[in-house]
Amino acid sequence: MYNKQTWLDEIPDMTKPIYDASGKQKTDPQTGRPLFELVQVGTRITSSRLNTMEGGIEAAHTLVEQLAKELGGNFVVPIDGTMGLLCNAQGLKATWTTGIAYVSGRRYQVAAGEMPLNPTQGQYLYVDIDGVVKKTTSQTTAKKGLTIFYVATDTSGVISTTDHRVNISMEEILKKIKDINIEDAVTGGASGLMTGADAKFVRVDGETKTGSQEKANAVKDYVESRLDTSERSEVTLQPGLQVIQGKKNAPFNLSSIKGRTLINLLGRMGNFETLGTYTYSNGMTAVIDTTFSAGGTSSLRVVIPSNQSSGTVSIPNVKLLANKCYVLIGMIKNGNTDNGGQISFAGFADSALVTNTTKFNATAVKYKPSADTTVSISMGVNGVPITTQYANFDELRLYELTQTEYDALDTVTPEQAATMYPYVDSLQPVKNPYAIRYGENLVPPFYEWEYGKIGTGKAELLSPYELYQYGKDLSSYATNDVLIPVIPGITYTLSAEIDKNPTTITDALFFYWIGADGNRLPGEEPTTRKYKGTHVAPNDARQIQLYVDMDVTHTTENKTQIIKNPMLNIGSTALPFKPREDPMLALQTELYADPLTGTNADEVFEKDGQYYKLAKWRGLALDGSLVYRSIQNKTGYKIVGSKMKEAAPAFNKLFVCKYNADLLTKASTMTGPDNAYFLTADLTDFNVSIANVDSGWGDSYTNLSADEIKAYFLGWKMFNWDGATGGDHNGVSQFTGAAGSVKAWIKISEVGTAGASRTTVLPTTQAPNYTPYQLLYQLATPVVEPIMSEGQLTLIEGSNQIEVGTGVVVHEETKPVFSNLWSTYDINSINSSGLAANPLNYKAKKIRTVYKNNRPDAWSIIKDNLSYGYERAYFPAELFDSLSTYYVTYFMLDKTPIAPFVGSVAENEKTLLNDLNESVQQSVARVSETETSLNDVVRELLQQRNKRNIWGPIE
């Protein structure tokens, strides 16, 4: 087995030489360089080590070549069932297609080509040992390489041709197995087993030749089925959690992920993270409630006053178009109303009432107007005029559907509709898709659990899967817990080794069922805890909350417990302990499709170990990265534009969401504001009309500069900061350029706010808490783009719990910051007393891995209100390495549409061998690239050997 060398930088402190007893500076015995005290101990580069590396690379090449020779000698490798180097001869010219050839054990990627033929001659085309296609009249010469074609010519053209390509196959490998034959056997002699000098062996039970041959044939047939024919099973991994049965341990080969785009016509108003602009009936009120949420961190609590029995809180002025199909979906948790809550297209269509008080339930209503109309989207609560009653609403979304999708809603439940059309903010594609196969053991190591303690209670991690706890009573105990996803109706078994003192105390390893809203299901309380054994997940369960907790008895005696090797597996039998391993395939890309029809979808595919996207759409933010120009001044609005890098196929093949998430119209007439299109004369020229009331550009202000346009797209409104000329101090006015007026800017989010921040200096950075315009347009010509990926999804033999989702961020670089609150370095923290801010690019739902110099590092993860999102990571300051580079892979809190992973898994050994062969070829190619890069580095170092080098001479 190869003993991999881990190389580290060696960093000396040049101010601290190392001296020997005589006062002379010491030198390195291998390199001869002067020695200094080290800041970081590293690996010396020596000729011996480099030669060892060269020897290893040479040995790897020799081994691969020897294996190729033993496997098939000289041959052509079929790719996807097609054998390359196909030759064709016409006239006095021969051509051949591209292909992969193994010649004397070496692999060559042979490019397509052509060569002239000799007249009146028989000649062979062959791939020589240098990988070049040549021709010869000698069959012996051709056979030393790889013969691919023979052609005989007369003076003007071809007389005859023969294809001599040899492709690798398993036939020769299986030949001996296929030729198995049981010779006739005779019985006799004193023993009844042998007779004569050449007697045959015979079974004692007297089995006949026919019976033995039948069994041998059965074995042969089985072997042929496993080794002679490639077999794959097509597998589609659906969004969400599922259990897939695997026939054997095998990698999942991704064939395709197709894009999808959802546009929530309510923008971001339905996430209820902040209060919006609503209309109220019957004295209703609404507040943001952080106690309950279906998604994000809060919901909207709608309250009936005590003197009313019902009422609504509504989002007004939602425009619907004639004969278009719409669906309104939301999540409702009844508080204490007698009749529940509902959502509606006010005055046109209502959903069913939701009365459940224990969790959020999905509800949906559809509507198809016969004429263009403006409606209110209402959240209604029905009770009795006795006490103040309320219900909570969350994840409210409004989507336009096709007629087929609209009709299909009649056949699904509200929960199914909510899954088909999940909540998104504004315009969202399939963003950063991933598939995780959770380990055969679903329990993560203890260092990933949440930790807490009361009084003198304590917990100590003895190893990743061994935990010590001490507790005394309910005022002094330790607790560790973790959430694990489960699937309703699936059977799970919990097991562990538990050492208790005293032995009479109740096991302190237990769990509760958790619902979709993150809360315990009804009836889940201390008296109904689930302990070791087999349990079936209820219909409403989505997770279990697994605890190791010493508060299970109320006695005052000291209690200790060691939990070792906890195991949660699918099925009714406890399996032997295994550490949890969660192989994941994560792709960093955005996959779009037409939001209204779902057609022309972007698609992911794999080639030679690299993932690519066939991009048919381009999505981008209209922010400071673009160059803008003024196009036309209109009454009440202005038209501005920007050049795109790629052309659109038509002027209206685009979708644009405003900073407030409203969807802009698209018409080339540009007769009003909030419209966007591409010029038909130049389909790279994007135009958008902007209302003066939004931008602050008055009708008479025509000297609009490119940077002033950019400031608007960065979230700033221009206004007249001078009360004497019709201006104001809170940004409501427009700047007209009139004499005496003062041009100033205010954050768009603060317009109309007294005491808001203002500036007379043209802003060049994006305003805080501002979401730019979003542009999505179809490309006139699709393009293929490589995408970043992480990991390899594999299936195990038996039950595989797999999650397919979106929102994984792969290897985002971060710079941990020091916080004196707990003397730690933190990642994804927000400003607080004693805690430094270091937010990631997106709010984090879950931090998966922190990497130190691209290697996983053991950071602690905590979920609290000091996190940007749900979680942050921290590391003890005294152990932190400030010279390293840190990266994070995590899951975003924001939701985006989810698409299935379509692929296949190997069904038999030949397919596994083919996959392994392909993987080896790709690995050899990558090793070759690494070798080339290393040689370049060494060559550059050697070129510096005669220059002054503080490290000493380079050998």
TrEMBL record:
Q: Which domain of life is it from?
A: Bacteria
Task: Tell me the protein's name.
Answer: DUF4815 domain-containing protein
Identify the species of origin: Paenibacillus xylanexedens
Upper taxonomic classification of the species? Bacteria, Bacillati, Bacillota, Bacilli, Bacillales
